[in-house]
Amino acid sequence: MLVKLEKKAFGLLLYISVNTVMLLTGCSNSPQTKRHSAGGDTPGVEKGAADTVPKAVMPKKDSSHQFAWDSTSYDTSKCYIYLTFDDGPQNGTMNCYHIVKDLGIKATFFMVGMHADDRALRNIVDSIRDGYPEILLANHSFTHANNKYHYFYDHPEMAMEDFLKAQESLQVPFKIIRLPGNSAWVREGEVRASKLVKPVTLLLDSLQYNVIGWDVEWNFNHKTARPVQSVTSMLKLVEEAMNRGESHTKKHVVILSHDRMFRHPEDADSLYNFINTLKQNPRYVFETITSYPKLKTPGSN
Ligand SMILES: [Zn+2]
């Protein structure tokens, strides 16, 4: 049985760079390596780098792309998987991109504005944006709170401006945010957040933003940035989340991972195997976050 959820379509015209193919082939040795050492939640967030605001990507006028909230139909016999990659653009982003493309599935990249601080990195953001609708670019703030989460969330107006700056500089097509360092949810009729992040989530809610948390995390070693759990463990975690109905929304599981975890070929292989095994299960359907239930769409309020 299909449950129809009507989402109002809208048109947001963005332009696709005509040299996407060039960008994709040039990404594997992009210079972002230097910006992402292995430690911390956001290696590569350099102090003071917020001053180096990425120049807006100049649109090419000979092609265009339509971003729209499609009507989403949920098959109640299926389970929906939302793969999400955080903190790009960084070394590892394009490995994830190519794996997602090669396997023909869907995934969402929550990106950090200040990480896109040179042309090669901005090209990666373009590739992700242009991957729509199979690949979705979403907002993970401009500064990633400079990894000082308490200060960031204790200043909600400043934090909100930081998200708006990322929305603009990365040209994020939809109002979809993931908070740095915190799992919170803002959807139609829902604000679920810890005391620390509640003030900024309320501000974002008032601006019609959605905030997306996660259900299952593929953790990484903060010294090496390499994945902690094996593919087998991750498959079990996803299956348990589905079967126990413990995800934020039943039958919809959001998986959090980070682009940089998959920069080494053997770890990229793990990601490939993880997705490919999930894909063999006929119950599972991969979607981008725009298909998550009860998101606020333009015109829904
Ligand atoms: Zn992050």
UniProtKB/TrEMBL annotation:
Start and end residues of each stretch annotated as Disordered: 30-49
Organism: Deminuibacter soli
GO terms, molecular function: hydrolase activity, acting on carbon-nitrogen (but not peptide) bonds
Pfam families noted in UniProt: Polysacc_deac_1 (PF01522)
InterPro entries per the UniProt record, alphabetical: Glyco_hydro/deAcase_b/a-brl, NODB_dom, Polysacc_deacetylase_ArnD
GO biological process: carbohydrate metabolic process
Domain (NodB homology): residue spans on this chain: 79-287
Name of the protein in its database record: NodB homology domain-containing protein
Species lineage: Bacteria, Pseudomonadati, Bacteroidota, Chitinophagia, Chitinophagales
Gene3D superfamilies recorded: Glycoside hydrolase/deacetylase
